[in-house]
Amino acid sequence: MNNVEELKQFAVSHARAQRVPQERTTAVLARIEHDGEGPGSWTAEWSAAAAESERGGRLQEACSLSYIARFPFVDGPGREAALTHSQETFARWIRESGAPLEHLDLELPEGRVQCYTNGLPIRGDRPCVILMGGIVSTKEQYAPILLRLAKLGLTGIATEMPGTGSNTVPYGPDSWRMLSGVIDAVEDRVGRSRIYAMALSFSGHMALRCALEDPRISGVVTMSTPVSHFYTDPEWQRALPAVTVDTLAHMAGTSSDKVGHHMRDWGLTEPQLQALEAPVAYVSSRRDEIIPVAETDLLRRTVRRLTVLDIDDVHAAPAFLDMSGPWLTLSLLRMHGTHLPQRAALRSVVSLAGLRHRLAGHGDVRVHRSTGI
Questions:
Q1: CA 152 to CA 343: how far, in whole Å?
Q2: What string of pLDDT tens digits covers the 373 residues of the chain?
Q3: Is the peptide bond before 72 cis (omega within 30 degrees of 0)?
Q4: What residues are paired with 155 via a beta bridge?
Q5: In sequence order, which ranges of 98-201 are alpha helices (DSSP H)?
């Protein structure tokens, strides 16, 4: 079983990212006492809240609450039912809302990858974005972002990491090949468009590795991403939250006490990073409890075309979501060279968000740019 207090700590950030009302989150957490089965359990209380939202017609909220009920990964019938409910509720929301999203099933040599897309096939040369979250994120969590990207003239494909959600691809040092497999599968529908990876947290490591091998990746935008030190520093690994270690063990098919040894050769080397041709935009959190700050220093030393947004916050900068998301999207548009009115609007959104945080005393925000992107 998971440590309930640790689950509660991380659930607050995930609920905020999913735009679940804070009072709703607080009420559910107050009812949770254990991580077993039945009343008072993690899965039962979040699932009950999801059912209530569904009855009220709040389907996106119901999907998000079921996603949290499944958090951090499926380890039994309760979380498996929560994952299924999250997927079915999201599909129902698409049908009833008429959201222009298409479900895409891909059978790759390594396994099955499910996606949501918008705007395929692409007309002209508008950029295409492959969107992925981290080790606990499902495609349903990120697919609504595709609707916002469409307004900026971007076509997107939202999917999930190997071993997460519906993805049956094994999670290992060669998982980056999944991204190339997705591109292969949709290449005839992408046409002449340049392809970018908006890969957050651990999926960012996959995207950086893929960009080294696959020139079709024209740029990577990411945040709180392990690069090298996370995989090679045993002292850092010993201090990781148990939920992170247990999730990685589940995905990689190993035991929690062997995760560090199992992944020690996964890190990218300095010569690899120096050879990286694709531009990179990276959101770094100075108080990140999962990803060492040394990763940011490594990227600054090695990646030639790099922009870093450095934020005084914990993993994935949950208090700065109003700034980090628009900044990553703006960075992608800069990489593509797109000059749209929306780009100027995004620049204003980022600037205003930064001003609000400074005035509220949330810590300083710094931008490091090795080259103009």
A1: 8
A2: 899 999 999 888 889 888 899 999 999 999 999 999 999 999 999 999 999 999 999 999 999 999 999 999 999 999 999 999 999 999 999 999 999 999 999 999 999 999 999 989 988 788 999 999 999 999 999 999 999 999 888 999 999 999 999 999 999 999 999 999 999 999 999 988 999 999 999 999 999 999 999 999 999 999 999 999 999 999 999 999 999 999 999 999 999 999 999 999 999 999 999 999 999 999 999 999 999 999 999 999 999 999 999 999 999 998 899 999 999 999 999 998 876 777 888 889 898 888 888 888 877 777 777 654 4
A3: yes
A4: 128
A5: 139-142, 145-151, 177-190
Is residue 143 within 8 Å of residue 90, measured between CB atoms? yes
Where is 117: in which H helix or E strand?
Answer: strand 111-118
Distance CA 190, CA 1 (A): 44
φ and ψ at 347, to 5 degrees?
-60, -40
**257 burial via Cβ count (<10 Å: 0-12, 13-18, 19+):** exposed
| Contact in structure between 293 and 310 (CB atoms under 8 Å) | no
Q: How many C-beta atoms surround the C-beta of residue 289 within 10 A?
A: 13
Burial label, 223 (beta-carbon count in 10 A; 0-12, 13-18, 19+): buried
The tokens describing 167, both together, are: 């993805």
Joined together, the tokens standing for residue 168 give 């049956």
Residue 133 to residue 61: CA distance in whole angstroms? 19
Nearest by Cα to 303 from 338, 328, 276: 276
**Residue position matching structure tokens 């979040």:** 46
Which bin fits 57, alpha (ψ -120 to 50), beta or left (φ > 0)? left
Please name the residue ranges forming H helices in the chain.
Answer: 4-17, 22-31, 42-55, 59-70, 77-97, 139-142, 145-151, 177-190, 202-213, 229-232, 234-238, 242-252, 259-263, 270-274, 294-302, 321-336, 341-359
